[in-house]
């Protein structure tokens, strides 16, 4: 291809599409795999960041949404619905707009980042703030999709998983083989399921020689997979993964166990420390939930659970601009100066 055509065209032979499928794309995918020198230094490993915030709506959700909306259009759907902590709704709204479809989104009231709310609204979604958490929103969206003529585009929709598995393909295509360890944040557990499927497919046909250990990380206040129990009132500053009853729970356990991996909890404090380290040292601005993968990697490394010399990929799932509140809070208040070089220089300590 003379240009990147989007992930459906790029991986057409590995996706459930036919020549007549009406592809809905915003040229998602082909995101950067950025070397992370500071994380590599701290862990003694070769660490890369899969920067999914570089997708068209700023998160990995676009990979699943190009497939889900394409298939919904192929099947004749006129409306789609999703529950969301923000990114899914932003992505669904954009791809539905592109396809000329109506998009309904259900979000937990007061618990999604402002940038994500703005995206759903600007793309013309019909947005309802539900008096409940994400798990309540998903139950409601699923019921509406059964009782009314509207297609559900949450990651319980297998086409979402099919699209999202292409991130694993891209990593192997760039590195020449699978990494040894793959770290990612876990919320509803669709993405860890998708990566594991992608890595297995590439290993099955010999494109990769092995599969990585899948390391998933949940926020400590929303870690049902770690504790083995539904969390009735999940709490974390990482609102994207504020989920107490993940839809793909058993698939996440399978990914962990079949890959010889782990699913651990990371505190909000560790998430924010990793968030700041990513921005300051690696120059990659992510949203807080995305930093859970890096917080988890550092936590395991500090506990001696990471063998040095391995190749590690951390997926950073969403763009920092979606949720700037955490970048601004704690930072010094900017100083105001007159239009005067001496005054500016004095303030800058030059
Ligand atoms: N990181 C970000 C930025 C997310 O938005 C999500 C999920 C995850 C990680 C976790 O991925 O659910 O596949 O385990 N966001 C969903 C949403 C729930 O509605 O946008 P997961």
UniProtKB/TrEMBL annotation:
Its keywords, alphabetically, are:
Amino-acid biosynthesis, Lyase, Pyridoxal phosphate, Threonine biosynthesis
Per the record, residues carrying N6-(pyridoxal phosphate)lysine are 61
Q: Crosslink Isoglutamyl lysine isopeptide (Lys-Gln) (interchain with Q-Cter in protein Pup) sits at which residues?
A: 143
Quote the pathway field: Amino-acid biosynthesis; L-threonine biosynthesis; L-threonine from L-aspartate: step 5/5
* Pfam families, per the entry: PALP (PF00291)
Instruction: Please name the SUPFAM superfamilies in this protein's record.
Output: Tryptophan synthase beta subunit-like PLP-dependent enzymes (SSF53686)
Organism of origin: Modestobacter muralis
**Swiss-Prot/TrEMBL GO biological process terms:** isoleucine biosynthetic process; L-serine catabolic process; L-threonine catabolic process; threonine biosynthetic process
Enzyme Commission numbers on file = 4.2.3.1
List GO molecular-function terms, semicolon-separated.
L-serine ammonia-lyase activity; pyridoxal phosphate binding; threonine deaminase activity; threonine synthase activity
Q: What is this protein called?
A: Threonine synthase
Q: Kindly list the cofactors needed.
A: pyridoxal 5'-phosphate
What are the leading ranks of the lineage? Bacteria, Bacillati, Actinomycetota, Actinomycetes, Geodermatophilales
Q: Where does pyridoxal 5'-phosphate bind?
A: 87, 187-191, 317
Record-stated family = Belongs to the threonine synthase family.
Function statement: Catalyzes the gamma-elimination of phosphate from L-phosphohomoserine and the beta-addition of water to produce L-threonine.
Q: Tell me what reaction this enzyme catalyses.
A: O-phospho-L-homoserine + H2O = L-threonine + phosphate
Tell me the InterPro entries matching this sequence.
Ser/Thr_Dehydratase (IPR050147), Ser/Thr_deHydtase_PyrdxlP-BS (IPR000634), Thr_synthase-like (IPR004450), Thr_Synthase_bac/arc (IPR026260), TrpB-like_PALP (IPR001926), TrpB-like_PALP_sf (IPR036052)
Domain Tryptophan synthase beta chain-like PALP: from-to ranges: 24-318
